[in-house]
Write a structure and sequence with these properties.
The chain is an alpha/beta fold. Helices cover about 40% and strands about 15% of the residues. The structure holds adenosine-5'-triphosphate. Keywords: ATP-binding, Helicase, Hydrolase, Nucleotide-binding.
Length: about 725
């Protein structure tokens, strides 16, 4: 038979099995529906029963309904390619691999879940160590239709006469495919070195490093799905949290876990880690560096001890015909005493009341001694402590404090100086105070870590008065949108596993915030130091180690193959960081396209038309998405330039928001501006240059950003 005929015959064969699987899925669905209906019936019947019977029936009902709902949820997930693999073992056993395990009515396996041990050879078998697999087949489906098959023969000597082998390179086919709005799962083509990380033990800290496009994000997400499958009892209750750099990124990866039937994972961006606030704004680099530094911890701790701006500066209270007065200085002394003895201010109201009463008693005693009168201290404390005017004073003098309110205090430069004098330089104080005082609406991403720090330093507001953990003001409340994530207003620290993506960019203050959420958790931490935009790596490393606490089990893995970029694009990108990275920190790109990146010289006056032309050209050249990447300060303008090109495949994205994303084609505008805008300039440019899978066009009005080519490497094609 000719190759196309063999292929067609094999596709038809697999279609028969896939049809059986979907038929079985439909039956299982019907059974789950019936079980749910039966569960509800039990509930109705129970109303007329004795109380203890009713209780046990209701329990049974809840269990049945819960179980049925869970089954339905699993069966209803959008399974693109429910069955995607097949293993033919030596000795003729066949195992189909898919996104979930399904058995037929006789309990025979129709599909084995990809996470089950029996499916492991699908990812781990190699020609050197075939694990008794003769043929590994990747089955590509669209919905319920088999489109193609692709085989790897691992034991050529054991191929039986009737076994047909078709195609080559399921991985290359997957890598060459057009990119869409959302990241796809890679269950069908996970590579051996990736699989080893996905299936690594769950305890302790698993650190994954690797250059751009090496599949770190994909691996981390598949690992989350795998861990929940294998260790649901240990990890499922408190939940798994995946933290990404931005909302654009969490949105981009949001389909991966549901496509594997996993809906119990919270995805949050660093700007979304506090409920009710969604921060997307990035501060300019020097300001972000101040806000992210551990020095801010001291500044905040001191700032919240200062007198609140609206607090009264004098106390007068009458006691038995006499007015007792505490001056501003005396009140300050009392405040200092409370802070030095007590814990978080919101838990110290009682201590504040006691200390204030003691100061009033001292004052009364002073008056009495001056007049030669007797004085009963205990009586005064009891009497004043019950007086309404004393409590009225107390609530304004020692108010409940909220993080947002205290952070805003820092907009007053004099107040900030008091808190930061010995910690920040005068220039830093001015910069920070101005930024808080003149901040545009809403918090910045870096502010979220400061608010979270204050949340802990201040302590929870008394329950009776609590509006939210943060006391959103009206403006924020309007701004805030739900993140789609499960709300956990109080128990931020209960997660059982935390995945941190783009970990190289977390500031020390962000590590503290993230660490708080994982006090009892195991971790998967993913990053690439070469892509880092944080200027002080040792400080971040220290905070990172503290976040992991005493967890000593640490596993480190490095991925070395860049699956995203064409070899031509990556060759250019790595030149940009040549002097800033060790050679073994740079991965190897495996796919050649023959398309060299294009470098176009533009003038400031022709930028607009050049961007429009390049975007149009790239939209025509590729089937999937086109990203126009520029400096953060140029995003709005670039968006305006491209409004006329209303194509849903086109996106404008600022350099810092481009982290972790990818497009079929990238138009990179003014590389020098990306370098200048950040404190780790070249690394940010490297990130931007490594976003494209197929084509890259660079528009630049200035030279100097690209070191000359190593011998034998081509410069990008210069065009006008
Ligand atoms: N085994 C694989 N099979 C198919 N595609 C893969 C595989 N591994 C990675 N990819 C693809 O390569 C691309 C890059 O993967 P991913 O975004 O996870 O890389 P990354 O290391 O996180 O990159 P960056 O550091 O730039 O964010 C994605 O499109 C991903 O689907």
């Amino acid at each position: 038979m000719s190759e196309p005929r063999v292929r067609r015959a094999e596709i038809a064969n697999e279609q028969v099995h896939v049809d059986r699987v979907y038929a079985r899925l439909a039956t299982l669905r019907e059974q789950a529906e019936a079980m749910r209906a039966k569960g509800y019936e039990i509930g109705h019947g129970a109303q007329r029963e004795a109380v203890f019977e009713q209780a046990s029936m209701l329990f049974e009902r809840d269990m049945m309904v819960h179980h049925a709902n869970q089954t339905l949820q699993t069966l209803d997930a959008e399974y693109e390619g429910l069955v995607f693999g097949r293993l033919d073992h030596h000795g003729s056993e066949t195992v189909y691999v898919g996104r979930l395990g399904i058995r037929d009515a006789e309990f025979n396996n129709l599909v084995t879940d990809w996470r089950a041990p029996a499916a492991a050879p699908f990812y781990q078998a190699t020609a050197e160590d075939p694990m008794a697999v003769v043929r590994r087949r990747v089955i590509r489906c669209s919905g319920q239709t088999v489109l193609d098959v692709d085989d790897d023969v691992l034991m050529p000597e054991a191929v039986p006469d009737d076994m047909r082998v078709v195609g080559e390179g399921a991985l290359m086919a997957a890598l060459g495919r057009a990119r869409g709005d959302r990241m796809r799962d890679i269950v069908a083509t996970i590579q051996k070195e990736q699989d080893e990380i996905i299936r690594a033990p769950w305890r302790g800290v698993t650190e994954i490093t690797g250059g751009p496009g090496t599949g770190k994000t994909a691996v981390a997400l598949h690992r989350a799905a795998y861990l929940l499958y294998r260790y649901r009892r240990q990890l499922g209750g408190a939940g798994v949290l995946v933290i990404g750099p931005s909302g654009v990124f969490t949105n981009y990866i949001s389909r991966v876990l549901p496509s594997m039937g996993e809906t119990n994972v919270e995805l949050r961006a660093l700007g979304q880690l506090l409920d009710g606030i969604e921060a997307t704004r990035h501060d300019p680099a020097p300001l972000a560096a101040i806000k992210g530094s551990l020095r801010m911890r001291k500044v905040l701790a001191k700032a919240l001890r200062d007198t609140p701006p609206d607090a009264p500066t004098e106390m007068r209270i009458s006691y038995r015909g006499e007015v007792l007065k505490l001056t501003a200085k005396e009140l300050e002394r009392v405040r200092r005493r409370v802070h030095s003895q007590a814990g978080p201010p919101n838990k110290s109201r009682v201590r504040a009341a006691e200390t204030l009463l003691a100061a009033l008693a001292d004052k009364a005693q002073e008056y009495a001694e001056a007049d030669g009168r007797g004085f009963d201290r205990a009586e005064l404390i009891t009497e004043l402590g019950e007086r309404i005017d004393f409590h009225r004073f107390l609530v304004v003098w020692w108010p409940v404090l909220y993080p947002a309110q205290v952070l805003r205090w820092l907009g007053d430069e004099r107040r900030l100086t008091r808190a930061a004098r010995s910690v920040l330089s005068a220039e830093e104080i001015t910069l920070l105070a101005r930024s808080v005082a003149q901040a545009p609406a809403g918090w910045s991403v870096a502010d979220i870590a400061l608010l979270d720090e204050l949340r802990v330093l201040l302590g929870p507001p008394p329950k009776r008065r609590r509006r939210s953990t943060l006391e959103l003001d009206a403006e924020q409340a309007r701004d805030s949108r739900t993140t789609g994530a499960r709300q956990r207003p109080e128990h931020y620290d209960e997660y059982s596993h935390i995945v941190v993506d783009e970990a190289q960019d977390l500031s020390p203050m962000q590590w503290r915030m993230v660490g708080r959420r994982g006090r009892y958790a195991s971790w998967t931490v993913v990053g690439d130091p070469v892509q880092s935009s944080w200027p002080d790596p040792p400080e971040a490393q220290q905070a990172r180690d503290q976040a992991f606490g005493a967890r000593t089990a640490r596993r480190r893995y490095t991925l070395r193959t860049n699956y995203r970029n064409s070899a031509e694009i990556f060759e250019l990108a790595q030149r940009v960081v040549a002097g800033h990275a060790e050679p073994d920190e740079l991965p190897r790109a495996v796919r050649e396209t023959g398309l060299v990146p294009q470098l176009r010289t533009v003038e400031p006056a022709t930028r607009e038309t050049a961007v429009q032309a390049a975007a149009k050209e790239m939209l025509e050249a590729v089937e999937g998405t086109v990203g126009v990447v520029c400096a953060m300060g140029r995003v709005e303008q670039t968006q305006q330039w491209l409004t006329a090109q209303a194509d849903e495949r086109l996106r404008v994205v600022g350099s810092l928001d481009a982290k972790g994303l990818e497009y079929d084609a990238v138009v990179l505008l003014e590389p020098t501006e990306l370098i200048e805008e950040s404190l780790t300039g070249r690394r940010v440019l490297y990130v931007a240059l490594t976003r494209a899978t197929q084509q890259l066009v660079i528009l630049s009005s200035r030279d100097g950003w690209l070191p000359s080519a190593a011998h034998g490497n081509a410069d990008p094609a210069p065009t006008r």
